[in-house]
Amino acid sequence: MNTHKARFGESLRIIWAIAAKDIVEALKNKKILSTMFSVLFLMVVYRVLPSWENGDALPRLAVYDAGSSCLVAELENSAQLDLFEMSSQEEMERYLGHRDMVALGLVIPAGFDHILESGREAELSGYVAHWASDSASAEVQKFFESQITELAGNPVRIDIAGNTVYTQKDSRGMAFLASVTLIIVITLIGFSIAPNLMIEEKQTKTIDVLLVSPASISQVVIGKALIGLFYCLTTAGVALAFYTTLVTHWWLAILAVICGSLFAVAMGLLLGSTLKVKQQLTFWTWVLFIPIVIPAFLSIMEDLFPAGFIRAIGWMPTVALAKVFRLSFSENAALAQFGPELALVLGCTVIILAVVALVVRRSDR
């Protein structure tokens, strides 16, 4: 018993020594630095992309008119805003959840025109997405208050207090952009760190020195995995910080990051264990990256692809992970909604690690 404990402790010490050394050394690797800067650039681009695309767009107003108010016709004719009339409050809220820029939802109650005719100050219920900052919410509230007051010829106040609309598991817009950003970040880092370090040591023959030491090839691989996991979790943490206002269930977002990082690092280990030169790594990274990540983009395009295709790509780990991220942005997150997706990601990870173990075992001989 004591002998087994001693061996296990010694194995952990060797693995930690390998990982601790390369955590710093990784920052000196030009290929890894290039990947990390590219990932940081992508984070910034995806975060500001909505602002670039909607820079000249008019403020958007989604209206549910419960009583055929004359105000809607006035709003339609206004050149100061874009009006989207909805058939129900639920449709209006869904519209807000699909936006990537702050818009205002409005419910016009039955009998609203009679209130305007009385000359009294009128009040409307306004709705904004939960990720909108207080300043952005106040800005759209004041803008539409002034526009509607001018069109109605009567003071109108919009109350947005407590009227928060949350994104859903299938939401597009800001929730979708955040989910695919996290997927890209985790996948690129996981595919790059560990295999680059492993291949570099193969090419410089330093892995031979390690294997002459008490370290085995298995311990070397685990050490590289820990380095990849460290950088995956760190970079994904930075990506989550870009979307702080969007996340409502931090525990689920962090759990999704951990599961996604394990999957990406497992794929990286598979590449690093089987390939020998960096040129091969670059080629195979993109060969695997594209079919693994692209389905996350296609999964929301139900109107463009057959239902069978959408169901099929739902079995991709990245698609499942993107759904979990979007669920972490929503109001409610039940186990039944994210459990199967995370089980799929972890199941694929276990299978990949089993293949890695087989490759490593053969290398040990």
Overall description:
By secondary structure, this protein is an alpha/beta fold. It has 14 helices and six strands. It has helices spanning 2-25, 30-53, 71-76, 89-97, 112-117, 134-152, 173-204, 206-212, 217-242, 250-274, 278-298, 307-313, 317-328, 335-364, and strands spanning 60-65, 82-86, 104-108, 122-129, 156-159, 164-165. Strands 1, 2, 3, 4, 5 and 6 form a six-stranded mixed sheet that branches. The protein is elongated. The two termini are 27 Å apart.
Please estimate the helix content: 55-70%
Average the pLDDT over all residues and give the rounded result: 84
Question: Kindly, what is the distance between the CA atoms of the first and last residues, rounded to a whole number of angstroms?
Answer: 27 Å
* Secondary-structure element order, N to C: HHEHEHEHEHEEHHHHHHHH
Q: List the uncertain runs.
A: none
Q: Note the main sheet.
A: 6 strands, mixed
Rg estimate, integer Å: 26 Å
Tally of helical runs: 14
Shape: elongated
Number of strands: 6
In terms of DSSP E residues, the strand content is 5-15%
Task: Spell out the blueprint of helices and strands.
Layout: H1 2-25, H2 30-53, E1 60-65, H3 71-76, E2 82-86, H4 89-97, E3 104-108, H5 112-117, E4 122-129, H6 134-152, E5 156-159, E6 164-165, H7 173-204, H8 206-212, H9 217-242, H10 250-274, H11 278-298, H12 307-313, H13 317-328, H14 335-364
Parallel strand pairs: 1-2, 1-3, 4-5, 4-6
Antiparallel strand pairs: 3-4
Helix pairs in contact: 1-9, 2-7, 7-9, 7-10, 7-11, 7-13, 9-10, 10-13, 10-14, 11-13, 13-14
